[in-house]
Specification:
The chain is α/β, with parallel strands linked by helices. The protein has a single domain, classed as Purple Acid Phosphatase, chain A, domain 2. 29% of the residues lie in helices and 20% in strands. A five-stranded mixed β-sheet has the order 4-3-2-1-9. A four-stranded mixed β-sheet has the order 5-6-7-8, with no helix packed on it. β5 and β6 form a beta hairpin. α3 packs across α4. The longest helix is centred in the N-terminal third of the chain and has 15 residues.
Length: 174
C-alpha cells in the first residue's frame, strides 16, 4: 500500500551541514550514505515523499541522490535549493520527481506545506495542519498550533509517514 512521507533538510553533499546541524557523521560521504540508508529503509519504491526544502547542495549530488532514493519525490524549494532549480531548468529531473510551488494545501489531507514556518497558512481556519521544513531548533513541532517541523534532524534522519505524524496528534487530542 502506497504511503505518503514528509521530510526536509537533508542537504546532501554539503560538508558544513555536519557542523551546522551537529550531525554525527565523520564526513559528507558518510552523511550522504547514512541519510540514503535511513531513507531507503523507510520508504518503498511506490511511496510518495514530500521534501520541504534543502534537499542537496550541488546539482551533481542532487541528480545522483534523486536516482538512488526510493519513492516518487516531490520537492518544495527551500533556501538552499539552487541545485534543484538548476536541474529543473536543465530539465534533467528524474521522471518520478517533481518540483511544486513553495506553498500549497491539500484539501484531501487537510495540510498546508511549505519550507518556511508560518503563523498563518491556507486552510488554518478550517483545521488544516502546517508541515514545514525550516531546520532551526526554535521552530519546533507544536501540537497545539497544529504545526509540524519535518526537518530530518528532528526525526532520526528518516522521512516520517503522514499516518505516523497524524497519529501523534490523535494521541494528544484523545
Amino acid at each position: 500500500m502506497q504511503k505518503i512521507y514528509f521530510t526536509a533538510n537533508q542537504q546532501f553533499g554539503r560538508p558544513s551541514a555536519i557542523r551546522d546541524f551537529q550531525r554525527p557523521f565523520e564526513n559528507v560521504e558518510d552523511m550522504n550514505l547514512s541519510l540514503e540508508e535511513s531513507w531507503n529503509s523507510t520508504v518503498e519504491k511506490d511511496d510518495i515523499v514530500y521534501v520541504l526544502g534543502n534537499f542537496a547542495w550541488d546539482p551533481t549530488t542532487a541528480e545522483d541522490m534523486l536516482k538512488r532514493l526510493n519513492g516518487t519525490i516531490v520537492l518544495v524549494e527551500g533556501e538552499h535549493d539552487s541545485a534543484i532549480r538548476d536541474l529543473s531548468k536543465r530539465k534533467v529531473m528524474p521522471k518520478d520527481c517533481g518540483l511544486v510551488e513553495p506553498l500549497f494545501s491539500s484539501p484531501t489531507e487537510k495540510i498546508a506545506i511549505s519550507y518556511w514556518p508560518m503563523h498563518e497558512w491556507p486552510g488554518k481556519s478550517k483545521g488544516y495542519y502546517h508541515f514545514f521544513g525550516f531546520p532551526n531548533k526554535k521552530y519546533k513541532t507544536d501540537h497545539k498550533k497544529k504545526m509540524v517541523n519535518v526537518a530530518c534532524d528532528f526525526w532520526g534522519y528518516k522521512p516520517k509517514s503522514l499516518d505516523s505524524i497524524m497519529d501523534l496528534f490523535n494521541d494528544i487530542e484523545t
